[in-house]
Task: inverse folding
């Protein structure tokens, strides 16, 4: 007996229930980017970035759908010719019959979402929103089971996150005690005021720029909140396992056709950095 096939429309419906598109930030571009809603879906591939290499990986794995955190077409494009990386990506998706779905800031604010996954990697409990932005809870604040030093905390975090060439950058004294922690996956140096208001001892995020960090450390007069830049890709890739698990559970509710789908997480590191020269250890020794 032949069973009804799972379609892209089924999967999109499940994804939109988990990560409602209307919870995304106003500047964001989320949802279905490529694909035919009537096409069958037998294998789903998860990744942070829809790079050419990831799309090739999805095609090699026989994926019908690629679910990524970052958008492919966040800003306007005027050509999808293969002379550009964006055009080559779109062409490869279409030629390989791989649909693309993006859950970006709507996955950041979901509960559980990107920030919850990062909070778990930090070992936090008693989670609460860091702030409300455009009507949605952004970031998380939680506590460690017991106080630890900043060096101990960041060493444990480094072990919990996927490895990237840039490692983890820390602003604060290695011996400083920390227990209350704020987190935002991905770029987060626009949230310093909320972090200070939260009473966090340390803030874990990514893409921290020189001037905002310098000003934040000056404002704190050397005390908390201390700052941890754990890398954009690393702080968001921890969400993929949660997304895979939640989507599989949602599809299972559709009955037998929802349990036949195969899922796979990308093994590619799409962090753009390859190596670091001259990094210093705590205390200023190389």
Result:
């Amino acid at each position: 007996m032949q069973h009804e096939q799972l379609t892209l429309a089924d999967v999109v419906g499940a994804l939109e229930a988990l990560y409602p598109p209307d919870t995304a930030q106003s500047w964001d571009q989320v949802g279905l980017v490529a694909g035919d809603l009537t096409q069958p879906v037998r294998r789903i591939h998860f990744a942070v970035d829809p790079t050419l290499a990831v799309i090739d990986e999805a095609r090699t794995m026989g994926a019908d759908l690629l679910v990524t955190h970052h958008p492919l077409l966040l800003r306007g494009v005027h050509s999808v010719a293969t002379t550009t990386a964006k055009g080559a990506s779109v062409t490869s998706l279409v030629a390989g019959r791989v649909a693309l779905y993006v859950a970006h800031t709507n996955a950041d604010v979901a509960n559980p979402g990107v920030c919850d996954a990062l909070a778990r990697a930090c070992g936090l409990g008693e989670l609460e929103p860091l702030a409300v932005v455009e009507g949605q809870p952004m970031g998380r604040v939680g506590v460690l089971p017991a106080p630890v030093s900043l060096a101990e905390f960041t060493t444990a975090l480094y072990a919990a996150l996927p490895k990237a060439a840039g490692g983890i950058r820390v602003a604060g004294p290695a011996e400083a005690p920390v227990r209350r922690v704020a987190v935002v996956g991905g770029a987060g140096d626009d949230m310093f005021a909320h972090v200070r208001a939260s009473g966090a001892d340390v803030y874990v995020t990514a893409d921290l720029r020189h001037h905002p960090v310098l000003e934040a450390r000056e404002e704190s007069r050397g005390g908390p909140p201390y700052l941890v830049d754990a890398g954009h890709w690393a702080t968001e890739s921890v969400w993929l396992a949660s997304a895979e698990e939640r989507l599989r559970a949602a599809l299972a509710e559709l009955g037998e056709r929802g349990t036949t789908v195969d899922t796979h997480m990308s093994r590619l590191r799409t962090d753009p950095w390859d190596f670091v020269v001259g990094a210093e250890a705590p205390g200023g020794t190389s």
